[in-house]
Amino acid sequence: MAEDKPDIAWRVIGGLVGLVTAWGARKILGFVWTKTTGKEPPIDTDSPEVSMGEAIGYAVVMGVGMSVAQIVVNRTAKKRYDAWKTVKQVTPGH
């Protein structure tokens, strides 16, 4: 059974959702990092001024947080897009 390719509209919407999600998640995770540690997030984790523990902790928080945000937002957006598309196809005159 052949899998349907996503339509152009979903590709554009999905791309925009991805960009906004990444930006928003980075801002939120940075805020949470600052409130939790009392320090600004490290800008350059390769810098010798940033401890190994802090660099690894930040990488783990950002990696997991960004991945979870992308999964949740992409699945929700796709579900809503598919529902909208189904309603639009069923509605007479469209």
Automatic annotation (TrEMBL):
Q: Which InterPro entries match?
A: DUF4235
Provide the transmembrane region boundaries: 12-35, 55-73
**Pfam families recorded for this chain?**
DUF4235
Identify the keywords attached in UniProt to this record, alphabetized. Answer: Membrane, Transmembrane, Transmembrane helix
Supply the name of the protein.
DUF4235 domain-containing protein
Q: Which organism is it from?
A: Nonomuraea rosea
